[in-house]
Design brief:
Number of domains of chain B: 2
Largest sheet of chain A: none
Strand order of the largest sheet of chain B: 7-8-9-4-10-13
CATH superfamily of chain A: MetI-like
Distance between the termini of chain B: 31 Å
Number of strands of chain B: 13
CATH architecture of the largest domain in chain B: 3-Layer(aba) Sandwich
Order of helices and strands of chain A: HHHHHHHHHHHHH
Shape of chain A: flat
CATH architecture of chain A: Orthogonal Bundle
Strand content of chain A: under 5%
Order of helices and strands of chain B: EEEEHEEEHHHEHEHEEEEH
Structural class of chain B: alpha/beta
Number of helices of chain B: 7
Structural class of chain A: mainly alpha
CATH class of chain A: Mainly Alpha
Distance between the termini of chain A: 27 Å
CATH class of the largest domain in chain B: Alpha Beta
Shape of chain B: globular
Oligomer: heterodimer
């Protein structure tokens, strides 16, 4: 089969380098179209306008807003993972199982209704932002973690029982330690939802800064080149974090590809 | 017939049954009419362990029986008792997880540990003193041709290497009494020989070296075992009774077939067992 034919035939193996080449060409075409073929006048900003807006944002403290967003994301993720892991792993103990499974259903309950209540309870500001994020992220982390734990093969547990391990030690060794990489994958797979939430949460209290706060202000000003620049910034940040977490996940022996 | 002597009981199953989620999986294993006992066998001038085969159709309860014998799960009724090695005064106790090694069909290993780390864990669980653990691990890696795989993880091992690591883990923890669940399943001729050599290693290292294994290959069961239990479903008025049970046992030592070259009498026994399984 010729290469061109292969590329348009389903279920055919092609080299990775071919996929990269196709992707690069498509990206170039997209950027070219954006740069030169966007009809004017139009609300849609050109690539040049977006790049200029980016420069302006950078000169006016974009870096610190990025830092603020990453900080709140980091703090909320750490707290959320600690809480979620504790709840998820506790479902392996029969007494705590109903509580854990209840948490997985709570993700259907929108937290926006509790915003005012939480604002009054936490005192607003950064505390409110982190609390909202932690609650939101935890529901999804708990659900994802529990579904992973439910899939642990019985053979893995039996193997350790046959090695005289106590149930508590099996919980630690098999369920927690031997599946730490799954924890990282759960964070990565839920990251896009986390980012969506961060932007909304930052908009609630713009005094704390962050990309979300900046985005809301820029939108109000109908400055579309800056809006696009900020959206691209959030996108690039998200992709960067996704790739970093993917690399960390792949560094575990269970996920390495060996010849 | 080869001379041999039954010295003491290494495993006795009495009146065992097992229900899982209300369904009867096994019943009446080890009764007066059909005892299930593994004795320590002594043969003059040689180290002789015990090899027991459990055969039967799929779904007859062999794997469940093995999990009960290995102390992984308790029986619903009845007892499984072994010598109490800690007291070492001739007394017996009910089997617990870890008393008997259990090598599962899928050879599960840790996802994120190296071979060395896994064997160290096993040595720790086997209560080997910290100062001796590295030496024990080194010695097993050497004996079982896994020296070059010391720092590799599960994903980097071949099927045969995973099998050997899984076996060594259990030997280190449980020393001389091992269960193998379908160890020959899906293996090629070379790997089958590897497993046979493993059995020989275990049963010729100590008189107490005992292997219980299951297989669908009756030829292998008759070739290797000195005792065979056939698990199946008894029929009453043409209808299968619920729960697998021992429908027949064969003492190849009494029959003069144990430790002998595979020949016509073995083939006859093979055919007899196959018919039993088909009819159950």
């Amino acid at each position: 089969m010729k290469t061109i034919e292969k590329v348009f035939t389903p279920l055919v193996e092609v080299r990775k380098s071919m996929i990269w080449t196709i992707g690069s060409i498509q990206l170039c075409v997209l950027l070219f179209t954006w740069a030169y073929l966007v009809p004017k006048p139009s609300f849609f900003p050109t690539l040049g306008e977006v790049l200029k807006a980016w420069g302006d944002l950078w000169d006016h403290g974009l870096f610190f807003h990025i830092l603020a967003t990453l900080t709140i994301c980091g703090i909320a993720t750490v707290i959320s993972i600690i809480i979620s892991s504790a709840i998820a792993y506790s479902t392996r103990i029969p007494f705590f199982r109903p509580i854990g499974y209840l948490f997985t259903k709570l993700r259907y309950n929108p937290i926006q209704g509790f915003t005012l209540f939480l604002a009054m309870t936490t005192g607003g500001g950064r505390n409110l932002q982190v609390t909202l994020l932690v609650i939101f992220m935890s529901f999804y982390f708990i659900s994802a973690l529990i579904s992973i734990l439910d899939e642990i093969p019985e053979e893995d547990i039996i193997r350790r029982k046959a090695e005289r391990m106590s149930n508590w030690k099996i919980l630690w060794k098999v369920v927690i330690v031997d599946r730490l990489d799954y924890l990282i994958e759960v964070i990565r797979l839920n990251l896009s939802m986390t980012f969506m939430m961060i932007v909304s949460v930052e908009a609630m209290d713009k005094s704390q800064g962050g990309l979300g706060a900046l985005l809301v202000d820029t939108n109000r000003g109908l400055n579309f080149p800056k809006v696009f620049a900020l959206q691209l910034t959030i996108l690039i940040l998200g992709i960067g974090l996704d790739e970093a977490l993917k690399s960390l996940f792949k560094s575990f022996p269970a996920n390495k590809k060996y010849e | 017939m080869e001379e041999f002597k039954r010295v003491s009981s290494l495993l006795t199953i009495e009146g065992v049954s097992k229900r899982i989620h209300g369904k009867l999986i096994l019943r009446d294993i080890g009764t007066k009419e059909s005892p299930f006992v593994i004795h320590d066998i002594n043969r003059p001038n040689r180290i002789q362990g015990q090899t027991v085969a459990v055969v039967g159709a799929s779904g007859s309860g062999k794997s469940t029986l093995f999990k009960l014998i290995a102390g992984i799960y308790p029986p619903t009724t009845g007892t499984i008792i072994i010598p109490d090695e800690e007291k070492n005064n001739g007394s017996f106790k009910e089997v617990e997880g870890g008393d008997i090694g259990f090598v599962q069909q899928s050879y599960p290993l840790s996802r994120n540990q190296t071979v060395q780390e896994m064997l160290h864990d096993a040595a720790k669980q086997g209560k080997i003193p910290k100062s001796e653990r590295q030496h024990v691990v080194d010695s097993y890696l050497e004996t079982w041709n896994l020296k070059d795989q010391r720092y590799l993880s599960k994903n980097q091992l071949s099927g045969g290497q995973k099998q050997r690591v899984a076996i060594i883990e259990q030997i280190i923890c449980s020393h001389h009494f091992m269960i193998f669940d379908e160890p020959f399943s899906g293996l090629d001729v070379r790997n089958i020989d590897d497993v046979k050599n493993t059995f020989e290693k275990i049963t010729t290292t100590s008189d107490l070296g005992t292997i219980i294994f299951s297989t669908h290959d009756i030829h292998l069961a008759v070739e290797l075992a000195d005792l065979i239990y056939v698990i199946g479903f008894e029929k009453e008025k043409g209808v299968c009774k619920p729960g697998g049970t021992v429908i027949k046992s064969f003492d190849l030592m009494e029959m003069g077939l144990a430790w002998k070259e595979y020949g016509a009498p073995h083939r006859e026994l093979n055919a007899q067992i196959q018919k039993l399984i088909k009819d159950s």
